Structure formats: structure tokens, C-alpha cells
Amino acid sequence: MTPRxxxxxxxxxxxLVSAIAFVASRxxxxxxxADARGPRFSAQAAATFNSRCTACHxxxxxxxxxxxL
Length: 69
Prior knowledge:
The protein is mostly helical. It has three helices and no strands.
């Protein structure tokens, strides 16, 4: 092959290989969403639970009138 043909072929090939390496090195969306699905603490949710639910329910401490949540 001539040097000009090599540049014409190798330029796009190098770009393609670089793009594949970049995409392969990024974390998958499944890994990102697995972190987002975990339980989160919310001060507002805790206040709502304490004001409306603790009369009948507990959270990991046994049974009152309602079931343990």
C-alpha cells in the first residue's frame, strides 16, 4: 500500500478503536441504576412516619397494633 492509502485507512480505524475503548471503559447504566435503587434516608419521610405511623407500627422493633414494617 502507498503511504497515502495507509493514512486513509488507519485514520478512521484508529478513531473507531478509540471510540470502542472509550465506551467500554465507562461504567454500565445497570451499575449506575443499581446504586440509585438502594434505600435512601429522607428526613421528611422519617418525620411523616413518626407523626402518622408510630402509633400503630414499628420499624424493626416488634409488633404493636399494626405489623412491623
